[in-house]
Amino acid sequence: MVTQIDQTHDLLRVSGLEVGAAEQQSTQEWLQRHSVEALRLTVKDLVQLGKLTKPKPDAETGKPMPHLQFDAADVIQFEYRLHQAVQAYTERIKWCLRGSRKLFGLVQGERVAVCVDCSDANMSFGRAETLQQALLHLIDEQLSSKQSVYMMSFGTELQLLWPNVMDVNCRTLEEAKMFAMTRQAAGGCNLLKALRHLSRLRGVDSILIVVGSTPDQPADILEDFALQLSAGRDLRLHTVAFDCASQISNSGLRRLAEVTGGRFHCYSATSDELIYASSDISGLLQEIDTTQEVLKKIGEMRQGMLDSTLVSIMNEISMEVDKLPQSRFLPRPPGHDEPLKVEPAKFQPASSIDWLMENGLKANKMDLYQILAPNAYSYCEGFVPIIRKTVQSQVHEKVMAQFPWHDGSVKNVHVDLAQLFEYQKQLGHLVKLYEQRINWLASSSRKIFGTIVERNMLFLLDMSAANVNYLVHIQHSMRMLMEQQMSNKDYFNLVAFGSEVRFFSKTMVKVSEASLQAGWKWILGLECAGSRNLLGALRKVLENEEEEKHRVYPEGLYLFTSGIPDQGAEQVSAYLEEKAVGRDLRLHCVLFNVDDYDKDGAIPGRYASITKTADSLRFLAHCTGGRFHWFRETGIIESDDIRLIMSEIDKAVNFSRRAKTLIDAVRSKYEEMFPDKYPKALGGGSGPESGGDDDPDGGGGGDGGGGGGGGAKPKALPPPKPTAKSLARQSFVRDALDSEPPVPKALGLRPGAASSVKAEPLESVRLNRRCVKSAFYTGERNRKGQVISDYQGGKSVRKAVGRAEIPDKEDQVTSKAWFKRYSLAKLGLDLYRLVSGPDCRHEEKLVKPLGKTVSAKYCSGLFPTVNVRGVTKHLQYTPVELQSYDAECVRALKRYLQRLHWLLSGSRRLFGVVVETRAVFLVDVSGSMAPYMEELKLALKALVWEQLYKFRVAFNLIAFSSGLRAWSPGLEPAEEDSCHAAVAWIDRLESMGNTATLEALEAAFATKEPVDAIYLLTDGKPDTSTSTILRSINRLDAGRNIAIHTISFNCCDATANNFLQCLASETGGRYHKVVEEFDAKLFAHRLLEESQLDDPEYPNLPAFEGDDLSRLAKEIDSARRFLAKSKYFKDLYYETKRLRTENLGARENRMVPA
């Protein structure tokens, strides 16, 4: 209701703004707000007006059919809005057919370039005057309102009005009109040449191309060039078929506009029907047809309502009812269809494995064995010749507690009661922390999915027909997940699979508020159908070509399902393991437990019990290092995250119980050692059972006869209390015993001359070790005790196994530079170095009386003897340490294989790695290169975009055969325009002539700008003598230090390859030979998946001749040899242990008397 005149003016002004904005919009933009779907006038929206009532059974099949009831007023209002829409579309069509818009369509953009066809066919037979008048109308009505304009015409050659884009003013408009009036016939229709000129034109955002004849070039060539023209630029082509009778030309112009996202307009002076094929008008006609269909449906509904046959009406619109989401017919929670309410994430969650690495018992040094290790001592065993037996030490039996160790042995442990009490208290705090973690994992969306820990993830949603009754449950679960755990991620995607696979997006989508809302809207429209084709879904995801171009790969796949897949677990796991080679990819399986399926419902592709289903999904998750989560509405049934925490709690409880056992053992010892302080341990010293049997004199009976007490025996006297002198004397004796050297073991009989052999070399080390003691009060007056707390000795020369910490991101460096940081030696994984310590040396000395070499006997039979690089060593690494070495070496080997695949992919397969910032590329295009020119062009284009443009390398390209063809006179920066120009130059390369290698190198050295490297690609020997070339290069490179990297391309001539190797080595460059027919992924699969790690011979790597590849292959071979040697060491260790056990048993049997 308008109450003031100012308000009326405001409404009129706003209405005028809307009309003005509509005049600047194309039909596609205008329909975004005025289409039938935008106005909510589709048949689906009509069905939404109905109310669901009780279904009625079909008369023939008996199947219940949906029953809708409509309000007559709603239907009338809906029909009225449809008629209004038809009227608006008709008015828009009339507006598009007025003035210059009928001739050229609506020209959009503020900076417009106009390109007019002035061929003989378009300017003859009176067509020139028509075109000139049309151009004048275009300038007056549309171009005069633009910011800037550019005018040109084309025939066989180009005719330009201005060299650059000009601002619109009175002078430029008059010049444009004069240019339009002076157009004459100019030969053919060279549209490709015009497009090439426009590709170099800058400062325009729209190009109007007016064509009235058939172009000289085929449509596919023009279409490919238009794609290159618009690549990386927001530039659209507006093509106009001006009174052109050729349908082939019209369709070609339409495709030319569509590939660039532009519009097509068709004008004909003889037929008004052709204009309706224009982009602006055809879209409006489609909307009118849609409204007519909806009006027809309303008429059918009314006819059915008059006849009171609602069932027949429902049959007619049943297809539209079926298009409704299946969740519409299921009960839904409140606010189910509302937009997401995304919660900001406060921290980045971690899986329980990673969390326990920081908060577990070992991470907090709360392992009971870690606590007791400093004060735990092993038994000493030795052979006593007198009694001919092997005995154990008994020194600490009375002052230490015996405790079973984790390796099965028993150790003597000194127990610090205060330390163990504090340890139990800290264990209690850790258990409370673990319980909090479990409660957190069992809350919110983590109860359903667990923790989402990857930055890039993809969700696989089971939309099989068996889940039709649980569709709302799936949607609600995804809603909770997207609201609570997705805000701090990088990329995501959604995939629904049944018998078919549907993607939310073709590639991974950046996480944002808008993308999450779009994903939620997509989930609301999902429907359940088909079976569970999981393998098909995984293939669609992991073999997505669009994702390969996007280069953002999912790190975690989350499978949300309720049943077993159609394929077997072995097939799916084999495919996943193959695709996971060289990639950080994990499949996490989430199983939601549903009730037994209805026997009348959909039949699944495979049936399995819920237990077998869980076993299958658990196997799939664990084969890729993922996690398994199983839940139902009442709570979590199984979760790998919670299971790990529970295992840590059980371990803590077990440690606490064992600590209590130690404390009880120490208390009982104290009760035995101090009976006066703990009288209950000996029965209190009185009573009927503590009689004279313990009297050492045996005369208690005689004395008892004269004493009172009714003949009771006197109790035994307590032991005398120790005095200060007795305590000092005992301490002096203990110190003297501790200071005595240990008795050496008896050796077997041997000749007396053998005594000259050196004793055990490690004996002096043990004799020189000084024990460190700590004193403590016993709690009885001033009594003190001492405990050996440490043995001070020299620094260990034993080398620890390194860790294969290599970043996943590839460095743009040479293999030589890369291995300076990540070789096996730098990572501490050189097996020969690890086992070559000075404490492993096996001594052999010549004994002159015996006339032969005698080995040291102190370690015979204890450690395996191995030959390491010609030196005999004793292997002191245990199988456990060797297994740790194997794990790290396999990690390094996998990373080496990943880099090998990287070096053999893309442009690096032909050119290697470009590491310099200023380079000249010399390309051989002689006649012998003719069969490989297409491959060479593709590789050069990939080089330009993949390495030069990406790493901003200033470059120049020189093609040589009998002569030279340079792309640029000097180095050009790797910018977008220069790269496009380089690609266009590469397309024009042709092979012919000889191989002028020396002239090409001289041209590269003549570059004015500083050059870091020259890349020479050729397929054979040069025309000039190789010695002449080497002498010339030494002269040209004097004082400049320009590296020449040579590339042998399909060259089998050993002499030519030797020349290229010599040229690269003399200039400090690298030699590269293109590898043909080698699949790095297949080699990695055979090596890692077929358990061939311990075989250094199969599968074989090809003999790489390039410097980078040969260094990498050498390191891969070293890793495989080390793994095979490690396996041999472990087998030798077990064999030595077995022989030692057999010899010891045989010796004991011989010593036992008959």
From TrEMBL:
Which residues constitute the signal peptide according to the record? none
Which portions of this protein are annotated as coiled-coil regions?
none
Report biased composition (Gly residues) as residue ranges.
698-712
Cross-referenced InterPro entries, in alphabetical order?
Answer: VWF_A, vWFA_dom_sf
Q: Which domain of life is it from?
A: Eukaryota
Chain segments carrying region Disordered: 677-759
Q: Where would I find the VWFA domain in this sequence?
A: 918-1091
Q: Which Pfam families match?
A: VWA_3 (PF13768)
Extract the Gene3D superfamilies matched here. Answer: von Willebrand factor, type A domain (3.40.50.410)
Which protein is depicted? VWFA domain-containing protein
This chain's source organism reads Macrostomum lignano
Lineage of the organism: Eukaryota, Metazoa, Spiralia, Lophotrochozoa, Platyhelminthes
